[in-house]
Amino acid sequence: MASFRSFHIFDRMGRGVPNRYVFARGRGPRMESQKNGQEQNSRKAAMDTFQISRDRMVREQLIPRGISDRAVLDAMRRVPRHMFVQDALRYKAHEDHPVPIGFGQTISQPFIVALMSQMLQASKGMQVLEIGTGSGYQAAVLHEMGLEVYSVERLRELYFRSSDLLMRLRYRTIRLKLADGTEGWPESAPFDRIIVTAGGPSVPQPLVDQLADPGLLVIPVGSERRGQRLVLVRKENGSVSTEEREPVAFVDLVGSHGWRQGP
């Protein structure tokens, strides 16, 4: 039968100390510290990998295609795009194509995000309205460009998901609203810039009405679903003009001034 003494070890002063006490006060914290250090190193390595991917994305996908706005390029280097897609698809986050985010929606390919952001010709401090929060990525890019962002999402699930994510990433000054985006955000109008991240059959009149003078609005427009052209709407001195740009394929802009629900 083991004696009580066999459960003790001795400290430097020769005093018997319970083995469980020394483990908890001695090796335990050191082992825990080592474990925490390893976890921190793993997280740092992952963060470094994603930063490398963002830098490559900007260097290989954006700059060669004519994206030159420094605010846009810097914003897309900073915003952690991989956080805005599902865990299982993070390896695709920086590839040159859209990535599904659920509920029939996508996060636009990096070039389209950059192109539409550059088309806004925005200056720091401007008030911008985004229609279609989706994952929250475009809103984060606009925020990093120094803009005051308002964003409307019609899908409840995406609204709450993006709200939570933007808060966790400390984009806490972005204002979000759950509503029909084609109606805009009249109580906060006018907006210096408006960006619509879904394609509709025409430019919603409420958005034109809520655009400041002077102001710019960027929206995909097309007579067929999933086939549009980017349209730059310019309001200046009381007149409104439109200019068609690149062909694109966006999810449907659904609402009272867009497509009806469903195909």
Describe this structure in words.
By secondary structure, the protein is an alpha/beta fold. The protein has a domain of 180 residues: 3-Layer(aba) Sandwich (Rossmann fold), CATH 3.40.50. It has six helices and eleven strands. The strands form three sheets. A seven-stranded mixed β-sheet has the order 7-6-5-8-9-10-11. Strands 1-2 form a two-stranded antiparallel ribbon.
Mean pLDDT: 88
CATH level 1 name of one domain? Alpha Beta
Number of helices: 6
Strand portion, in percent?
Answer: 25-35%
Biggest beta sheet summary? 7 strands, mixed
User: What is the radius of gyration computed over CA atoms, rounded to a whole number of angstroms?
Assistant: 26 Å
Strand order of the largest sheet: 7-6-5-8-9-10-11
Instruction: Give the uncertain stretches in residue-range form.
Output: 1-27
Lay out the secondary structure.
Blueprint: E1 8-10, E2 16-18, H1 19-62, H2 70-78, E3 99-102, E4 105-107, H3 110-119, E5 127-131, H4 137-144, E6 148-153, H5 156-168, E7 175-178, E8 191-196, H6 205-209, E9 211-224, E10 227-236, E11 239-248
Parallel strand pairs: 5-6, 5-8, 6-7, 8-9
Antiparallel strand pairs: 1-2, 3-4, 9-10, 10-11
Helix pairs in contact: 1-2, 1-3, 2-4
List its salient traits.
globular, Rossmann fold, 263 residues, disordered N terminus, 34% helix, two-stranded antiparallel ribbon, alpha/beta
Short note summarizing the structure:
The protein is an alpha/beta fold and 263 residues long. The protein has six helices and eleven strands.
